[in-house]
Amino acid sequence: MRTPFIGGNWKMNLSLQAATEFVETINNQIPPASEVETVLAASPLFLQTMLEHNESPLQVAAENCYYEDEGAFTGEVSPKALSEMGIKYVIVGHSERRKYFHETNDLINKKVQAVFRNHMYPIICCDETMGRYENGDHISWMVNQVTAAIQQVAATDMRHAVVAYEPSWAIGTGHTAPADAAEEGCYLIRQTIADIYSDEIANQVRILYGGSVNAENIHELMKQPDIDGVLAGKASLSPQEFVQLANFNHTN
């Protein structure tokens, strides 16, 4: 049984004061981690303060990191420092990082390994590079960005990874994928993981849908068998709406 995962990605929004007030506002409104794992990814400028003011089961996450632990990499975020702060999750390979900062599959794979090396878990984002190939009599599902991101990742680590399917045309547009299309994408990701590792590992990995998720469409998305949660953008900027997402089991 995979614990639902409700994630938010603030991107480059809010201020330190707004981030602090957000965490304080939702402190008594987040469900227990045994019921729903709730995660907010924020700017590295806000993380320490959010951790200090967080009194709920909320996990504070990082939006990005570099693949080296330390060194002459001006402006980058150290995964080692994030881990020492108490961060558990790091978003890796978001479509905006790929598009605006030209992150390659090889770079993203290095970041995934760095996150695991520092005892954290990656939220691996992928777009819709989906298809299947035939190798003799065996047909395998292939999600190219996921396949590249998890190269040389041990099965013992992979079972703790989170994968987010984010169609680029749906991110920030207000247009979400129909629930059956979102389910198909998540299903193909799970089948790809099964082909690379095993059904056992694939059934432990939580797969999220991201792309204009809100309190109105989350119920239909969460009914799908291979959608274990969501990664919301705009909807996560409002404490009230984020609380609605986190409590999707108790709202209509």
Describe the 3D structure:
With 252 residues, the protein is of the alpha/beta class. It has a single domain (5-250), classed as Alpha-Beta Barrel (TIM Barrel), CATH 3.20.20.70. The protein has 11 helices and 10 strands. The chain has helices at residues 16-26, 47-53, 79-85, 95-100, 105-117, 144-149, 155-158, 179-196, 199-202, 218-222, 239-246; strands spanning 5-9, 37-42, 59-62, 89-92, 121-126, 130-135, 138-143, 162-165, 206-209, 229-232. It has an 8-stranded parallel sheet with strand order 3-2-1-10-9-8-5-4. Strands 6-7 form a two-stranded antiparallel ribbon. The protein starts with a strand and ends in a 6-residue tail after the last helix. 43% of the residues are buried.
Question: What keyword list fits this structure?
Answer:
alpha/beta; 10 strands; 252 residues; single chain; TIM Barrel; eight-stranded parallel beta sheet; two-stranded antiparallel sheet
Portion of residues in helices? 25-40%
- The total of beta strands comes to 10
Taken together, the total number of domains comes to: 1
CATH architecture: Alpha-Beta Barrel
> Total number of helical segments?
11
- Helix and strand run: EHEHEHEHHEEEHHEHHEHEH
Shape assignment? globular
Widest beta sheet: strand line-up: 3-2-1-10-9-8-5-4
How does the helix and strand content classify structurally? Answer: alpha/beta
State the separation between the terminal residues, measured CA to CA: 23 Å
Strand content: 15-25%
- CATH C-level name: Alpha Beta
CATH homologous superfamily label: Aldolase class I
